[in-house]
Amino acid sequence: MKAGSVTGGSVTGGSVTGGSVTGGSATGGSATGARATMFEVERERTWRIWLLFAVLVALFFAGVWAMAVILGLALSSFLLEPSLLRMAFSLPGLGVLFTVAVVVGVVYWLSSRIEARERLLKAMCAASLDPADRYHQRLADLVDEVRMATGSRHIDCVVVPTVGMNTFAFSDFAGGGTIGVTEGALARLTRQQLEAVVAHETAHIVSGDALTATVACLLFGIYSSARDKLGDVAGASAAERDSVGLVPLFLLIQGVLALLELASAIVSAAISRQREFKADAAAVRYTRDPLSLAQALQTISRHTGGAGFIAAGLSALCIRPAGGGFEWLGRLAATHPPMEQRITALLRMANVNWVQFAQDAEKAERSMTEREHYMPAPALVTATVPQATGSAPATSDSPTGPACPSCRSALTPTLYEGLEILACRVCGGRLASQEQVERIIARREIAFTDEQRRLAALVRQEGDRLRRKAVLSRGARQILTPCPLCGKAMLRRHYNLQYAVEVDICMVCDRVWFEKDELEVLQLLVEDAVE
User: Fold this and answer.
1) Hey, which residues are catalytic here?
2) Which of 88, 182, 376, 392 sits most deeply, having the most CB atoms within 10 A of its CB?
């Protein structure tokens, strides 16, 4: 955190003007009649944002009404009842349908708040912080530091197990909120850059605009999920000879839902675009470091945004789009302003031009690369590997603890990429949980040997052949490796379809056993794929 003041530009409601950084009634980091903090943000009182939100809610009610009309028409046609068809177009009939739509909309509005946090975390595949993880502890310290500076009551923090780089924030309807960071961003951003993006997300929660975005995502998330479910129903119906006549009805409803989803995406995009500029300016007021936030935004924009883990419909909650959506509409349905505009606003605050920023960003990129792969892997105690015996491996209940399934040596707790895993100091095998593996492949501390790079290149080149060989060998008798923890037989298979690295997986303990160099080869393959 740097001392000093920010000059050279200001952001007010998304625009950049000359002068000092101000926001709402906050000036110089203090507010009249309130406890002075280092972090003052413009409260969510912009009439345009609330008007857009009102339009969003009205669009939901109109969507339910339109769906009810279509269903009524389809039912009348199917039953060949002219009276029903006339009632569907009559004013009393439309009034009944509209009343039903309003009731359904209100019920859904109320039910959308039930366990909202849990549903959002599940949709983003987020997980709680691990207090034993060095990376997670650093993130927890930063979030707590920003929370105390803002005077917030409570802010939770979670991580998303993807190598993509993104962050998000949403409200929990009780005055607090949740901040999420992907493992990729946690591993590759510097402390100053990570502090800047945490301050950005905290600004959304403190200002209250996170609540607007959270409600919008919860309210209109039904469109995409309903459309997907109807697509499955239509496919199943088409397979049945007696239900082929219902397929056009399903397709018609899908089309209406797609239009409603598009319309809600456009309105949600307008809401989101207004909030990003304010959150950027608020983050600068706290950190006094606009360049770190600008560098973080540029780094994040150059990498994948976590698509596949963060749903496209939840992009409005993120610091950058997660991917997917209506790309063909361009800026119309974009949930965020162009990254160049946001970086330009930050550069004006710092009195730095794009040429100088590009030079500094290039230096920062080189510095980040030099910090990667600096730590040698845990060394082996001896190069002599004892012959495996036919005895059962030691388990966690035995006096000697878990044993290596390959050489029967004791497995010892070892720090690897900020995590504590079990490793064999004789043959180089590693035992880690599935969750730990997802974190490890996003991090870049361990240095790789020439042999490991050669093996990774071989697996990359022969990937298709190795995958075909694995498929053809299914059902053949194999000697299965026992799990070091529970003693049950582990499955020998590729880590996944993309990376043809053979590992042993215990379905009981949720552990993955890597023979010597297998974990490093997997890391190399992932890094090559995300560059």
Assistant:
1) 201
2) 182
